[in-house]
Specification:
- The protein is mainly β.
- It has a single domain, classed as Electron Transport, Fmn-binding Protein, Chain A (Pnp Oxidase, Chain A).
- The protein has three helices and twelve strands.
- Strands 3-2-6-9-10-5-4 form a seven-stranded antiparallel β-sheet. It has a three-stranded antiparallel β-sheet with strand order 1-11-12, with no helix packed on it.
- A hairpin with a 5-residue loop joins strand 2 and strand 3.
- The longest helix is centred in the N-terminal third of the chain and has 8 residues.
- It is globular, with a radius of gyration of 16 Å.
């Protein structure tokens, strides 16, 4: 890192900024489900409806998903911490035992998530040590009564509560 601080300090300070947590999922060219935990998901545009996220350049999962041209953003519930950590590590068996169904674009929708955003890949470009992926929203759903979404802060899954 070319700066006056090291990458550990950078991560520590930015860890004070809470983020939502999603699993981006899709099917690889063989039809096998793939997915990865993302803490850098964001709405980009309402017209046209665009969302985006950053995937590390060393990810093996995103290139496998990218070949299909579509993906589903699974907004994790606060109770899905185990899935958050499982999909944060590269592994061939991340979906073992995970219940899911096909989105309209055939990407995996993970049971228990609070919302799903089904996208086609609009673009991707390298930014530093990540790819910035932009998706065009094709369909979306918030699950009624699903509970609170997951938030990540200071290296841990945390809960939130509304202000009184």
């Amino acid at each position: 890192m070319n700066s006056q601080f090291d990458s550990k300090e950078f991560r520590t300070v930015l860890g004070h900024f809470p983020t939502g947590v999603v699993i981006v999922s899709g099917l690889d060219k063989t039809g096998k489900p793939q997915g990865l935990t993302i803490g850098s998901f964001s709405s980009i545009s309402l017209d046209p409806p665009l969302v985006g996220f950053f995937s590390g350049l060393n990810s093996k999962s995103w290139p496998a998903i990218a070949e299909s041209g579509s993906f589903c953003v699974n907004v994790l519930a606060a109770t899905q911490g185990e899935l958050c950590w499982r999909f944060a590590k590269e592994s061939d068996d991340r979906f073992d035992g995970v219940k899911w169904s096909h989105s309209p674009l055939k990407s995996p929708m993970i049971d228990g998530s609070v919302a799903f955003i089904d996208c086609t890949t609009e673009s991707s470009s390298q930014i530093g040590d990540h790819l910035f992926v932009v998706g065009r929203v094709q369909s979306l759903v918030a699950v009624a009564g699903a509970g609170d979404p997951m938030v990540f802060s200071k290296g841990a899954v945390v809960t939130t509560s509304p202000l009184p």
